[in-house]
Amino acid sequence: MSTPSVVPQRHRVVIIGSGFGGLTAAKALKRADADVTVISKTTSHLFQPLLYQVATGILSEGEIAPATRLILRKQKNTRVLLGEVEDIDLTAGTVTSKLIDMRTVTPFDSLIVAAGAQQSYFGNDQFATYAPGMKTIDDALELRGRILGAFEAAEVATDHAERERRLTFVVVGAGPTGVELAGQIAELAERTLAGAFRTIEPRDCRVILLDAAPAVLPPMGEKLGLKAQRRLEKLGVEVRLNAMVTAVDYQGITIKEKDGSEHRIQCACKVWAAGVQASPLGKMIAEQAEGTEVDRAGRVLVQPDLTVKGHPHVFVVGDLMSVPDVPGMAQGAIQGATYATKVIKRALKGHDDPTQRAPFHYFNKGSMATVSRFDAVAQVGKLEFGGLLAWFAWLVLHLYYLIGHKNRITTIIAWFITFLGRGRGQMAITSQMVYARLAMNRVAEQQRGALAAAEQAEHAEQEAG
Ligand SMILES: Cc1cc2nc3c(=O)[nH]c(=O)nc-3n(C[C@H](O)[C@H](O)[C@H](O)COP(=O)(O)OP(=O)(O)OC[C@H]3O[C@@H](n4cnc5c(N)ncnc54)[C@H](O)[C@@H]3O)c2cc1C
Q: Which PANTHER family match (predicted)?
C-alpha cells in the first residue's frame, strides 16, 4: 500500500492594500516561489497625486486608477481579493476581509500591511459633511460635482450675496494637495469656463487657500513656500495663513486668526486638504505586538526592518509606518515595500536571519508641487527651483509613475488639451457625485439604528421570557 504524498505548501504572502506600497510589493514578488494574495477595499491602484486633476475635470478616474486585477493579470502566483480587512490575527496568522456580507479568512506566512491613511479632521469629523477630503476617487468626483455645481448655482442665483457665496471656494490646507487644487480651480475659472455663462463671470470667483500654519508648503522650506504663494496670488488665489478653521456648515466656514479674532467666510464649496490619520489597522496590529506603539497620527512605530516587535514576518509599509525622516509620500511607500519584499525573497531562499537584517534606509529623491500650468516648485537634494523647468520635471515624473501605456498616452493627450488649449475633457457632473456620500452615510446610520433597536428588542424579550 502506498502512502499519500504530502505536497509541501508554498510560502503564503498576504499584502493589504493596492496603493503605492501594496502594488509595488505585489509586483516585486512576481517571480517569487510564493503564493501572493493582495487584499484591498478598492478594485484599483489609485495614483493619489493626480486626484486633484480628476476633481477639476482634466483627467478621468480611469486614467489615474487602473484595475489592480488587470495590472496583475499575468502574474500567475498572485490573487487579488476585493474586501475591507476587518481583522488581522498575528498569532493565528490570518487576515479576515469582508465584501458585502461575505467574510474571507486568508492565512499568511508573511504579511505586508500597506493600508495607507485617510483624511483627518483633527477630531472635528462633523466638518466632513460640508468639506469633503481628497483621498479617494469618490472624493475627487464629489469635489468635481461641487466645484462645477457651484458655478451652475451661481448662474441662476438672483440674490447678489448668494451668488457671491456660490462663487467663493475655500481650500483648507496649504500642503501640495491644497496648493495644486486651489491653483487648478483658479485656472478652471480663468481659462476653461470663461465666456460659458451669461449672468456670471467665472473669473470673478474667489479662491481662498487657508492654513493654520504660517507658511505655504511647510515641508519644502521657506523659499519654495514663498515662491508658490506668490505664484498662487498672481493667479488670483487669496492665501490666508495662521487661520484655524473652527466651524464648517452649509453656509460657510469660520476661522480664527492668530490674534484670536474670528471671521466668517460665506462659501458654498469647501475642500478639506489638511491632515491625515493612518488606517485603524495600524492600531489593531500594534495592540497585538507587545511593545509596539502608534504615533499621534495612528502610524505604527516599526522596527528598523519595518516589522512589528516579535513578528519578524509582519511588515508595515507606506503611510501606515512611522519611520524617522520618512515622509508620507509615494517614495516612502515604494521603497518600504521594495525593502520588505527583498527580505521575504531572501527568506524564501533560506538566507534570512531576522536578527541580522540590515535596517531599512530611505533615499530622499525630493518633492515637488504644481501651482498652475507651466509652473511648479521642486526640491531635489539641496537644489530648489521653480517655474517651467520644475513643471516639466513634475510632468515627466508623474508620467513615469503612472501605471499602463494606455493611461500614459490618454493623460498626455488630456494635458495637451488643457495646458496648451483651454479645454478639459471631464466636465460632466451628476447629482449622485454631489449627494451620494451623504445619502450613503444616512442609510448606514439608519441601518445601525435599526440594528441597535432589533438588539434592544431581543434583549428585552429575553429578559421578559
Ligand atoms: C491628494 C493627494 C496627493 C498626493 N500627492 C503626492 C505627491 O505629489 N507626491 C508624493 O510622493 N506623494 C503624494 N501623496 C501621498 C501618496 O499618495 C501616499 O504617500 C501614498 O499613496 C502612500 O502609499 P500607501 O501604499 O501607503 O497607501 P495608499 O496608496 O493610500 O494605499 C492604501 C491602500 O490600502 C487599501 N486599504 C485601506 N484600508 C483597507 C482595509 N481596511 N482593507 C483593505 N484595504 C484597505 C486602500 O484601498 C488602498 O488600496 C498624495 C496623497 C494624496 C491623498
A: EXTERNAL NADH-UBIQUINONE OXIDOREDUCTASE 1, MITOCHONDRIAL-RELATED (PTHR43706:SF47), NADH DEHYDROGENASE (PTHR43706)
